Amino acid sequence: MNMRTMMRKLILAALAASVALASGCGGGGGGGGTPPASTVVKGTASKGIIYPGTVKLYAVDANGVKGSSPLKTVSTNTDGTYTADLGSYSGALIAEVSGTYKDEATNTNVTIDPSKPLHAVVDAVDNAANNNRPIAVTPLTELAYDMMPGFTTAQITAANKQVGTLFKVDDIIGTEPVAPTSGGMNASGVTVAQQAYTLALATISQMAKDASANGSPSSPSFDQIMSLLTSFKQDIESPDGCLGSSNITAFTKALATVESEPELSGFSDAWYKLANVGTISVKLTLGVTNVPAGTKLGSLKVTLTLPTGVSIRTDSNGQVVPGLITAAGTALVTGYQAASNSLVISLVNTAGFGVGDCATITFDVANGVTLTAASVPVTVKEAKDAGPTYGPVTGVTAALH
Fold first, then answer.
1. For the whole model, what pTM was predicted?
2. Whole-angstrom Cα distance, residue 372 to residue 258?
3. How far is 348 from 388, CA to CA, in rounded Å?
4. For the chain, what percent of residues have pLDDT higher than 90?
């Protein structure tokens, strides 16, 4: 056997051995398979946009206790967004953010020190239904974090919901703010909810500026924001559970200032969502009774007379802000009459409807006011059948519950 033939055989033998070794790496009889998908979270850190910023993500154990060291540490992008692969982790999660942002009210860079970060807490992340779950980290999520007595699912959910209700941001965790500029607010895909969240954060900055000793734009401090959050928390922990009148007045004044800024003006739908910040939102259901047997209603018009201290958010035309009244399969026409503090709702359903619930309504309730279904009289102004005559139907009644 010549030298060339011998070398060829040695090379082939070595290749065969390496292939056999590689095939065995998957473990016993090809059981390696595809590794499970990782748990991924993403989000936006904002008080304006935080960049450069550092996001630390901590596990929460079954007893609601935060882990001693982060699962993952990542940096924010220029738009404040971040993404983190948490491997096989599932459960509640705490996010901590530090870094630099440009204060919306003073246009000055402000630092969030790592020793005093912003927090956000979410009840569940995993690699299935809660994979790629967005987690915004903002002063509102910090307020909710500070209100949590612990980090059980119930405590996390309750605090996040309460803060969202008071500041009229439906989901303070899942809604991601954008850059507080015309370009950021007008970017493709940005929702009214995102715009409203962004404006709420800008308004908090304006409140801090208004409350500073000399109103100077040259020395903003994140401590001013934290001081405001402490004041909000003290109000919320009062028996009424609302913001106090002084904070509501200050927010309303600051909101008007922010609205006048060229970069943030013109977003009417977002501004209307922020009306009545600081009040409690209460949802009641409208039900119909006394519809004659065999009759289906095609249309119904009712008037609700609201007691003092109870309102519903409307736009400049007196139309209720979208999402505050819902009626499945039914066309809605609404209007608010300020002089009588009354709400008119017209329902049209081509398929027809009878006795039972027909709409849900979310009211805003001021500090010190208790809203019950009985305190809102409902008057049926008009009822018509669904055909073939489309004639009036008498005797129909309606009430909230």
1. 0.84
2. 35
3. 15
4. 77
